[in-house]
Amino acid sequence: SIVLFDTFVNILSHNLGEPAYEADVAQLEYKLVAGEYGLVIRVKGFNHKLPLLFQLIIDYLSDFSFTPAVFEMITEQLKKTYYNILIKPETLAKDVRLLILEHGRWSMIDKYQTLMNGLSIESLSNFVRAFKSQLFVEGLVQGNFTS
């Protein structure tokens, strides 16, 4: 599930690349993170246009779709990302330390092996459907924002 979640977040970020380009030009920033407790959406910038950017992200989340080519591209990128973490002693040591300290954490080695064994498009589709069926929102707004 963790590898499927990483894949989902990376595909969502990829899908947002072109539509959110104008927001980037307007000095608005967003970041999608597969967090420990769920999807973290961070938006930052001038407050009068942030709701539009946030709405764009939510629209792409609710209407999530992907092609097999994008699925293959993202899984290949994740393989490289996981592998690069594994070959650097300092990041591997950090992963092992967190594995010891955090209950229920999956190691980068487990994630990499799962990805190398192969993910299916159907498993990702089922994961996304289940994820969206249990979705709830917690929010924090800081700065010059009205209610």
UniProtKB/TrEMBL annotation:
- The residue ranges of the Peptidase M16 middle/third domain are 2-113
Keywords of the record, alphabetical order, are: Metal-binding
Read off the Pfam families from this record. Answer: Peptidase_M16_M
Tell me the SUPFAM superfamilies matching this sequence: LuxS/MPP-like metallohydrolase
Q: Does the keyword S-adenosyl-L-methionine apply?
A: no
Molecular function, one GO term = metal ion binding
Task: Write down the superkingdom of origin.
Answer: Eukaryota
User: What stretches pass through the bilayer?
Assistant: none
Checking InterPro entries in the record gives: Metalloenz_LuxS/M16, Peptidase_M16, Peptidase_M16_M
* Protein name (record): NRDC protein
Q: Which gene encodes it?
A: Nrdc_1
